[in-house]
Every structure is written in structure tokens, then in C-alpha cells.
Write a structure and sequence with these properties.
Elements lengths: L6 H32 L18 H6 L4 E2 L5 E2 L5 H32 L5 H11 L8 H14 L8 H8 L4 H13 L2 H9 L4 H12 L1 H17 L2 H6 L8 H4 L11 H33 L4
Antiparallel strand pairs: 1-2
Length: 296
Amino acid sequence: MAIVQSKKQRWRLLAAHAFLWLICAAVLLPFLVVLSVSLRPGNFASGLLWPTEVSLEHWRYVLGMPVPDAGGVMRIPDLPVLTWLWNSVKVALLSGVVTLVLSTTASYAISRIRFKGREQMLVGLTLMQVFPAVLALVALYAIFDGLGAAFPAIGHNTHAALVLAYSGGLAIHIWTLKGYYDTLPTEIEEAAIVDGATPWQAFRKVLLPMAIPALTVVFVLAFIGAIIEYPVASVLLTQQDQLTLAVGAKLFVHEHNFRWGDFAAAAILSGLPITVVFLVAQRWLVSGLAAGGVKG
């Protein structure tokens, strides 16, 4: 039997579809503009959305292939874009893992253990999110300058220093996981302990498998935050071969030399790791985001 809709319902449905199309256009248009710039000959930011002539010179450049210079001579690209991309992925993966390990254990302790100062700690974690990371740039530079003098492996121009700096932003992830742990009944762990498991085994073999959606969300957020971060990386990394892609991309744009085509190709290339991570983790993301926001 066909469902008869009133005129008001049809207009409401039409308006909803129109709004969704506008949202899709707002999301896709910037990407299409950047893609168009990367496919145009030369380094021009303005032009038609679909270029009249398609050139792969910018993509050859960012992929490290020889490209012709102004005189037509084939030359190796002067900027190691693929090295920067690998640096970004490496730092993002390591900081994601470190953030996940630290926030998992810290949030579990806050959720399950009642100790003195617990409420004050939660308030402090909330207040930490008020201040942007840029306020700590001078302090981070001084800290890692001193650490580098004693331990060069975690000083300036090292990815270890960047991973440590990124791993300090745990507050939002602790809150996310705490909210998820609060939704899981403590009776599950108590039953495992009654069956002979130690508290660590109950946490590792019973609770963690149930928290995979929330853990996935934390890892993805930490990965994205690290791979697109600029201020801290620009302070701690200055050597060209150590730069991340977010920091190295600034070398495409100089005061008298705007290489927009190369910049656009590198920008699209930088989005590939995030896309891959989303495709791999998408089955857990929705449930993890929803569960982490439930008040226990």
C-alpha cells in the first residue's frame, strides 16, 4: 500500500534533501578546487574548476619523479615530499599508540578507582582543554632544548621529541574513555576475578576487547591530530629531512615564489593516510563516538 504524504511533508522532505546537497557541495567544492589546481600546468591558484589542459607535473614533483625546469631540463625535485609524508605517518602512528596506552590506563583508574583528589583531577583535565597548545610553544622549546643537551635522542629535530610533545594532550582522550568505561558494568570484571583472573587479566582480556570502539576513536583522533599539527612541529623540527608534511608544505609558498600547484598536490597527498585510517576503522568509529559521550 502506497504511503500518501501531505504537501507539508513533501516540502519538508524536499528541504531536507536540498540541505544535504548543500552540505555535500560545501564539503566537496574545496577538495575539487585543490585537485583542479594540482592538475593545471604552472603554479596558478586561479582558473576554471576543470582545467582546459591537464598536467601531471605537480604530481610527478611530489612523488619524487624528475620534472622539467624552466629550460626544459629534467631535474630531481629539490624538496623530499615523500620523506615528509613518511615522517608524518611515523610520528602520527607512534603518538597514536603512546596516547592510546597512556589514556587507556589513566581513564580506567579514574573510572574504577575512588581515590582522594579524583574529582579535582577531573576538573583539572577539563581546564587543560581551555588553553590552546600554542601557549606552550616557548615552554616546549625550552624543555626539549634542555632534554636534548642531556639526551640528544629526544632533543630538537628528533621525532621522539615530537611524539612526547603530542602525547601530553591526553585530557580529551581520558574523558572519552572514562565515559565509555562508565557504561560497562563492574560486575563483568568481578565475575572474571571470581573465575580466577587477576585484576590485570580482567582489564586486559575482558574489558579491553569490549572497549575496542572507544579505543579506535581515541587512536584515530590522536592520529589525525598529529598528522595535521603545525605549531609544535614547526618549533621542534627545523632540519629539512626531519620535517613533517604539514611543516614542509610551507616551503612551497615563499614571498616571491608561490608554487600553488605543487602545494595543492602535496595537500591532497597528505590526506591519503587519514583516508586509509578512516576506511580501516570505520566499523568501530560510530559506536565508539556515541558510547564515549554517554554519562555513566
